[in-house]
Amino acid sequence: MKNQNENNEEGRVYLDLEVPEEKELDDETTGLNVLGTFLAQKKAIGKRAKEINSYGIFYPSRSVNLFQQAKTLYILGLYESSIMVCRSTVEYIVDELFKKEIQMIEDKKLCDFILNTLDFRKILNEYLFPKVIQKTDKDKFNDIYDRGNKYVHPKGKQEKVEDEAKKTIILLRTLILSLKTYVQPNNTTHRML
What span, in angstroms and rounded, lies between the C-alpha atoms of 46 and 28? Predict the structure, then answer.
């Protein structure tokens, strides 16, 4: 099987459009073929993993789960996807912060209506700031969201996407760490963040 990330000299990426019959390859063989793509890059993957891993707080939330996925995508060399997941992560964080703030409203239908009606930036810039978050955190939210938008809504060729993904991961980590006292539940444990 040809390496799916392998570029030819014209900069094109191999795309396999053939769908094998189910009996042609078993699950293990198919899994090994996919893993082969990443095994060929194991040195680069190891380097990226060492560059971005650090200790932090683990707690069960959708936003932290997405952050872990964004890190994994970056480590595997899937930079654009990593940036887009970082963008989604800040949306989940804003949602989590906003839900904590409006939980005192007894009418749950009203809460759901507010969350589903208001735009991310409106919640962030007009409600959470300055009541819940500081300006530096607001700026980080907006920066990560803008970086993600460059890839969700393409506006031409993106340069140095690996560097952009690494900067976005680091920026998101600093944002999560600065907000951890606000969003973390009581039963937290330390682990890789």
Answer: 24
Note the pTM of the prediction, 2 decimals.
0.78
Task: For residue 68, give the nearest of 179, 175, 173 by alpha carbon.
Answer: 173
Instruction: List, for residues 68-82, the tens digit of each pLDDT value.
Output: 999 999 999 999 999
Contacts 24+ apart (CB under 8 A), 175-180: 175/90, 175/93, 175/137, 175/140, 175/141, 175/144, 176/56, 176/63, 176/64, 176/67, 176/93, 177/56, 177/57, 178/136, 178/137, 178/140, 179/93, 179/97, 179/133, 179/137, 180/56, 180/57
Backbone angles phi, psi at 191, to 5 degrees: -165, 180
Mean of all residue pLDDT scores within the chain: 80
Contacts of residue 178, defined as CB under 8 A and 6 or more positions apart, other chains included, come to 136, 137, 140
| Class of the CATH domain delimited by 42-192 | mainly alpha
Taking residues 34-51, report their average pLDDT: 90
Q: What is the pLDDT of residues 83-97, one digit of tens each?
A: 999 999 999 999 888
Domain with CATH 1.20.120 in the chain: 42-192
CB atoms within 10 A of CB 52: 16
